[in-house]
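Weekly modeling sync, notes
Attendees: S.R. (lead), two postdocs, one rotation student

Agenda item 3: backlog of single-chain predictions. S.R. asked that every request posted to the team notebook include the full sequence so nobody has to chase files. The rotation student volunteered to paste the first one in as an example of the format we agreed on. Action items at the bottom.

Example entry:
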Amino acid sequence: MKNIFSLFLFVLFLASGLYMTDLFNDVALFVILASTVVLIFFLLLLKEKELKVNLLLFTLMSLVFISIVISALINNDISLFYQALVIYFSYLGLAIMHNRIYLKDGLGKMFKIVLITQTPLVFTVFYGFDFPLQGIFYNPNSMGLTAATVYVIILTYLLANLEQELIQNGKFLTAKNLFITMLCMFLFLVTVGSESRTSSVTIAVATALAVVVILFKGLTSKRYKSTFKSIFATLLMPFILFLVYNFPPLKTYLYNNILYKFEARAASDNMLSTRDIAWQKTINDATMFGNGREYFDQQVGIQAHNTFISFLGQYGWITLILFILFLLVSARYALIFARRDQSKYKYTPLFLILSFVLLSTAEIMTHKALMFAMFSTIGFVSIKSHRKTARDEQNIKIQPIKNSKYNAPGNYV
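Predicted structure, as returned to the notebook:
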């Protein structure tokens, strides 16, 4: 069953990337819907009477689904129902089924699936090589988004690896870490070359957070040598980025196509490329259950270019508030997990949520690989964050801890 499930995971994540291409857009959307339905079918195959699910997150996502269905009925818009199915079924299939099948290997499996399906899409940058970098995607922003997703995934692995080796062994300049750093440099260049401001900012924020984390860990390790090495380690990534940035052709390109955009639009009070006008209208027109799928095309005139504004315009205030609550609760679980776990993927859930929120400020992130990966990791940490200790994960049954300061909210059904 694992092999079959892995196959459908591969198809789902590959389709989420191909969805952003002209050639496969329509087919990929159908494949995404079909794949999420198949993932739910695995629940029936297991025939289990009980599944370990975080009740709070399950309830919030179920309410999101119900509110979108109500919106579809009020607006007489069947397409909203299909979107509700993709969001809800992908959450159930990835947050519950994925982690039920792979158990303690859930995060590692998701890490590999994202790399295997999304990295080849980034390398299509060499297909018809031209600036802004676009590859096979229908616009450069999609290339930047995909490159940023892979960058963040790899960065979390590098961060955990640096922390473990630095604190425990006092070493960090290993061949593996240097290779991963060079891969990050390549993804950084692709993101910059795509001229995607939002993706570039996301990479910058994720890198800055990683620097702060490794510096903090080194300074609190109570090892004199590790402290100074942590300082060097935190300066390594920014220093390499600085050298890359100051390479004359790249520096000129980066300024002309990304930094200058910020300056010019700030000077003309158009920092958001008129999106703020669309956002303001959406807020003014918002209702409890939204205005339907065609709202932005027919009444606004441009797309939302923001996941949260898109939810507000199409689904309404109730869906938006519930979804934000879902993200906030998930972020708390991810933070608890990052503080307590010792695996190579301890920071992956937290950074995925952060990246999803950052990218959502200027992109529609539904149906994207980042959203699916986030759902899967949220399902994992919302269970694992209740375990007594990370070292006991192979020896004790997953169950909530009562009267513990580490206990996160939620129960199981």
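Discussion: group reviewed the output briefly. Residues 70 and 289 are 7 Å apart (CA to CA).
Action items: rotation student to repeat for the remaining queue; S.R. to check formatting next week.
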